[in-house]
Structures are given as structure tokens and as C-alpha cells.
Amino acid sequence: MAMLEVKNLHTYYGNIQALQGISLEVEEGEIVTLIGANGAGKTTTLRSICRLLDPRQGSIILEGEDLANCKAHEMVYKGVAMVPEGRGVFSRLTVAENLDMGAFSRDDASGVRQDLERVYNLFPRLKERRAQVAGTLSGGEQQMLATGRALMAHPRLMLMDEPSMGLSPILVEDTFETIKAINKEGTTILLVEQNATMAFSVADRGYVLQTGEIILHDTAENLKTNEMVQKAYLGIE
Amino acid sequence: MTITKSIEIRDVIKFGLLAGVIVLSLSVIGFIDLLGTRELVAGMFTLGHIFMLAAPFGMAFVSAGKVSADEKNKALGYGFLIGVIAALPLVVLAILATSFDIRQFLPNVSPSLISLLTFGQGLTVGSLILVVVTGILGLLAAGLHTLPDRFQHPLITGLGWMLIAGTFSEILLGRVRAFFGRGVVKLIFAGKALNPIAALIIFVLAAGITYWLDTRAPKKEETVEDIKKLQKMTKIRIGLGILLLLVSPLILGTYLTEVANNVGLYVIMGLGLNIVVGFAGLLDLGFVAFFAIGAFAMGVLTSEGHLGLGLTFWTALPFSVLASTLAGVVLGIPVLGMRGDYLAIVTLGFGEIIRILALSDMLKPYIGGAQGILQIPKPSIMGFEFIQPESLFYIVLLGVLLAAFISWRLRDSRLGRQWMAMRDDEDVAEAMGINLVSTKLMAFASGAFFGGLAGAIFASKLTSIFPHSFNLIVSINVLSLIIVGGLGSLPGVVVGALILVGLPELLREFAEHRMLIYGALLIVMMLAKPEGFWPSEIIKRELHAHEEPEPVSSD
């Protein structure tokens, strides 16, 4: 049984249908990527899964449990954490306070302390800047913080929304290295990306999204060599 | 290496004229003339002079900061020029006023204003004096800016205290007479104003003490020892502060205590709204509603008239506060999904609804309509009635301390953190596991709790309440005072209330210009000190992060 099963998801913004029946699966321990052009519905899919949006139809099943009646703020208690698009740090809280908020759902103090160590080891930069207000961090540091904050929830499934957005190429490489490392330590990752090249370099499998529908899904290896994908998303003629 | 955009002669002319035009407009609306009636230092200058000279002085001070530090002479020269240029529009006004009859267009340009502008020396000599005085002041202001901090700070503080003492000399005089008798009054005052020597002594004392304190202050919180020392000092300070507050009605006298009571009520409200706006980031423009509900609940429960139930203050207090807290939740539920501007409009409507309900015929049998509720008893404990402002002070103080303590504990609590996370990003906060519904409702309820507390004390203090006491301006006042003090900052609320509620009370003769001062103060604040007079640490760090060296902490 897959860790996350999404079946036939239909999501609307008012009367405009953004998702037209999305189905996807994420197995435990995988990195699965969701690629597509602007407006294809990648972020909408992610936000629907973590209940920040209410799908009109479809089901989301996490480890056999139907999450239909689960509220957005309850998702993190089910082991799902999100790294939001555009980094979304709490800009007026310090780095340490942001990380603290990441562990909001937990009451095991010693575990939280361990995870804080882990995050600081993963991102030594955050440790240096822990007393700094998050809004004054650079883009790359904010991405680290958003990722670190999600890790503080000790999630089993992490949803990442375009972690490479607005970062310099070198920082993008770093970010994807980190994603791989986090996955190796046992966190399953569903990754939404526009940067298909980088996404395929870390992912096990991928789904290609177009105007609210999944038009293709396969292993990352196969997608990389798929003619249509090469043309549309990898810039290879 | 520093690159500062240095100012040029063109900017100097611009700044000078700007200062001149500010003073000119203050003059033609009659503000300067009005302030001219309040003498600060006997026979020397009035509050009108201060306002007349403040703009050139300030402008020269600010522009001196924009000249690079190694060009002192240039800064001084520019300061002088700004002062001189600022005087020119005033000279033109004086010439026009003496040559033509311009009072039919500008009724406030009175002979006394012209006399004030020209220092009572006639047009020619007076204009010259004006130009020289503003020029020298500009020079001094620029000079002050070039001084190192350890001199600049005491000098400005000394000047500030002298001006404060001068402005409130009449009140000061009353207090001095009450404590030390007429003999001492004659030593310090001349007429109602300070005498020049006393003014000088105040200046020297304030500057000296500031200098001494500055040199003594620990440089930085570096070691654990230093921090412990600092914490101990803070505790001692808070203790001393409370002690001072306890005896202050004796020192302040009836009038000032009454003013302090009004300030206190606004502090309680400010602390409440600070939770809603400052902590939780929910812009609420109808805060007066909770104040009104607290007051009317207290009125209905305690009044000895035909509308009241005749309970005691202390029995009614919890119910009044409960009523407004519930109203907070009731307001909160429909606006759960709203953000920013939309929320502001809805809360604005809520405030008006409550006021109109209080005025309505529908509720007239219960809360008296426009006639309000009368015969509300003052609080009493075991036969002792809190009738005088001096005794009511302790009730207000109790409320303030309670509100401050709860706010302080809430800020550092889990709930406080939830509010701040929600303020920064609602969606992400929700994804972190924060229940937005309960978090928002708790913010509205906590804010309303304090609003109701202030209202209940207000009703009992006044012994009668009318719907027209609860109009929009109260909401605006409370919001302004927390912004002026520093959004999210607890001491800021007190500072803001002192400035926006206390000052207008003490400067009653200028009441007609109150809104003007209010508006001007808010604009200047937002431009010059957007974080408020006493900002919370975080906001200060955020707004000025680019000016400080990067705070890198290490183990």
C-alpha cells in the first residue's frame, strides 16, 4: 500500500476548475516530483493535499486513513509537513522562533531538541543566524529556514513547493543536495518543481501535470529520456 | 567604505523653504499665535516661539546628518543657510501684513502674531532679528549633530526637560506651591512661567544627570554576569516604578491624577487592542464597541436609578468583563475568514452598530437611549468609597497592572507565539498545526476583555454614561496610541497613551487644534520613526537591520 494515495482530485477557485481529477501515489521512502508549466496546477495539488484548499471531489488517503474530514492544522499531527511556495517564513519572528513554530505540534521536548540539532547540522548557517529576524535573511537562507522548520515537525511525508524558486544556480544545487540528504534519513518527499532537470536528478518517480490533469507518469529515468518531456520541460530539441 | 548621498545647495534651499512653509502655515491658521499665549521662560520665549523655531532647527539637524561626517564646516554652513532661508517666508508674511490689510483673507494673521514673529521689535529690526535667530539656531542644530553622542544626548535631553518644564510651568507651579509654599515658588517662577535662572538650572541638571548616567551605563550585555546585573536592575526599576505609582496621587494632586486616570483607561484599552492588532495582526477599527459594552453592562448592573439592578461594583465587574469578552467572540465568528482591509471595514461597522444600538429606541427601556444611564455608584470596599480621583487612581492602576501582567505573560506564551505566527503568515501557521479559528477567537476575546474592563471602570468613575461617549474617535485614539508607542510593544502603549491622551488634556487651550496635531504627529512618526516611540525589540531589529552590523551570534 502506498504511503499517500490521491484519487481523482477536483479543486476549484470559485467557479474555475483548477484540478480536473488528479490521481497520484507516493510510496514510503520515495522522492516523487510533480512537474509542469506555470498554472498547470502543481501548487494547487499540493495545497489540496495538505487541506489548505478544499477539493470538491476526490479522496486523499494517508497510510490507509481517509483524510476527508481532516483540517489543515491537523495534517501536521498526521505526519505531513509543508515547505510553502515563496519560502513563507514568519518574517517578524527570529530564526530560532521560526524553528520553534515548526515543532508546534509536538510535545516531546527531548525529540524536539534532537531535531533542532539535526536542523542546525544540516544548515549551519541557521545556527549562526538563529537570533536574527527571519525577514532579514537572504533568499537562500529563508529557503533553508522553511525547510528546517518543516523538519522540526519530524514529518514522515514532506511536501515541498518549488524550493528552487528565485535561487541562484549554485544555491539550487545545494538545495537539491539537501533534499536528497533529508530523504536518505527516512523522510518521504513530494516535490513540486518547475526546474525539471534538477527535480529528475533527485526523484525516483515523476508526474507531469498540464492544465489540471496528469498527462504522464513514470520513473524519473524514463521521463528524462521521454521525447515530449525533453521538448517541453528540459529544453532539449 | 561608506557611500552616503551628500546633500547639495539645492537641497539646502529646499529644506529651508520647507521649514519656512511649515511655520508659515502654522502661523496663518493661528496656531503659533495661540501658543504665543503660553510663556515658557518668563520674558524670554513662549511656546509659540518654540513651534516657530522647531521646524528650522529640526530641518538643520536632519540635513546635518546627511552631510558626510568629515565635512563639519559644510554641515554648519548648510545649517545656517537653512535657518536663514526658513525665515524668509515669515519675513514676507510680516511685510505683507504690515503693508496691506490681509486679515480679510487670513483672519488669523493678527498684530500679535506679527509681533511674535518679529520679536516685538518692529518690521525692519524684527525681521533682521528673525533671520539672525533662525540662522544661528540652524547653525546650532547642525553643530549639535556634529557633536559626539556623549555630548549630543545630554544636551538634547537637557533641552527637552527644560521645554517640558516650561510648557507645563503652570501645573508645576501649583505642585511646588502645594509642597514647598510660596517662598519656593517665587524662587523658581516669574508670573506663571519659569524664571530664566530656574530654566537654566533645569537644563544643566537634566543634561548633567544624563551625562552621568551615560558614562555609568554598562556598554554591552556581554557576559552572563552583565546580563544578570541588567536583569537585577530591571527588577529594581520595576519595583521602584510601582512604588512611585502607588504614591503618585499624593504628588500629582487632584487635577493631574484625573488626567492620569484617563491615561490609565486608555492604557488598558491600548493593551487590549495591542493583542488584537499588534500580536495577532488583525486590524480592528471598532474597538470602542467592547469599551461601550463593558460600560453599559456596568451601568445596567449597578445603577441605582430606575434602569439599574443595584449590584455593587465588584459584583458587577466580572459580569461586565464577561459580557464584552463574549461580544469579542461574537464579532470574531463572522470575520474568521477575513483579512486586512476587509476585516477593518467589518469591525468599523461593528463599532458603529453597537453605538447606534445604544442610541436606539429599541433598547431605550433597558439602557436609556440618548439619555444614557445615570446614578452609577462609585466603587467601594468595606464602606470606603472611591470618590476622589486620588482614590479612583488605585482602581485604574489595578486594572492597568492586571492588563499589563496578562499581556506580558500572553506575549511569551504558546498562545502569543500562535498569534505572531498567524500575523506573519496565516497559511503557513495553519500548516504548522495552528488552529486559526480558536487562535483568532482568542485574540478577539482577549482584546475585548481589556476593552470591557476599561469600560466598566469608566462607567463607575463617571457615574453616568451616554452613547455619544462611545464614538469612532475612541477607536481611532486607541489605534493611534499603540502605533505611536510602537505596535506590539507593551511600554509603547503607556508612552503612546501619555502622548496622545495625556498631552491634549494638559494642553486644553489648544483643543481646537487637537486633530491637526494628531495628524501631523502620526505623519511625522510614520516617516521618522515608523517603529514607534518605544518599539518592541523584534520590530526595531526588522526595521533597522540594514543599518546595524549583522548580528552574528556564536557559542
In short:
The complex is a heterodimer of chains A (237) and B (555). Chain A has 237 residues and is an alpha/beta fold.
Structural notes for this entry:
- Chain A has 2 domains: 162 residues, P-loop containing nucleotide triphosphate hydrolases (Rossmann fold, 3-Layer(aba) Sandwich); 71 residues, no CATH class.
- Helices cover 37% and strands 27% of the residues of chain A.
- Chain A has 10 helices and 10 strands.
- Chain A has a 6-stranded mixed β-sheet with strand order 6-7-8-3-9-10, sandwiched between helices. Chain A has a 4-stranded antiparallel β-sheet with strand order 2-1-4-5, with helices on one face.
- In chain A, helix 3 packs parallel to helix 6.
- The longest helix of chain A is centred in the C-terminal third of the chain and has 16 residues.
- The relative contact order of chain A is 0.19.
- The model of chain A has no long low-confidence stretch (mean pLDDT 92).
- Chain B has 2 domains: 146 residues; 320 residues, ABC transporter involved in vitamin B12 uptake, BtuC.
- Chain B has 22 helices and 6 strands.
- In chain B, the strands form 3 sheets. Chain B has a two-stranded antiparallel sheet with strand order 1-2.
- The interface between A and B is medium-sized, with 35 and 28 residues.
